[in-house]
Write a structure and sequence with these properties.
Elements lengths: L1 E5 L2 E3 L5 E8 L8 E6 L5 E7 L6 E3 L7 E6 L4 E6 L8 E7 L15 E5 L2
Parallel strand pairs: 2-10
Antiparallel strand pairs: 1-3, 3-8, 4-5, 4-9, 5-6, 7-8, 9-10
Length: 119
């Protein structure tokens, strides 16, 4: 299993970013996939998940209405569109593969891409 994230960076409050996660080594459409993050000084926390073949999306309460998770099964890529970013969204964002029956924070999990929200 290989998960490689990209798309992070520095953005001003209220701005947007789209993260990508290229997946390989397993049947992408058969598993729940998640985005997780590690904020400074805190543990890994789950952010959003998508069911196998896009069957359902799930979000933590503080990102609902701002973040959108999606996937491209032709490219085996997971996305996270993040809008209206706030300082508390600053974190290392990683994608994680769950099981065929539910989402988890991994492992397996990628190395992550950093997101910094600052003026």
């Amino acid at each position: 299993v290989q998960l490689v994230e990209s798309g992070g960076g520095l953005v001003a409050p209220g701005g947007s970013l789209r993260l990508s996660c290229a997946a390989s080594g397993f049947i992408f459409t058969a598993y729940y996939m998640s985005w997780v993050r590690r904020r400074p000084g805190k543990g890994v926390e789950w952010v959003a998940a998508i069911g196998p073949s896009g069957s359902g999306t799930f979000y933590r309460d503080d990102v609902k209405g701002r973040f959108t998770i999606s996937s491209d099964s032709n490219k085996n890529v997971l996305y996270l569109q993040m809008n209206n970013l706030i300082a508390d969204d600053t974190a290392l964002y990683s994608c994680a593969r769950g099981s065929k029956n539910g989402y988890t924070i991994g492992p397996p999990r990628g190395q992550g891409t950093p997101v910094t929200v600052s003026a």
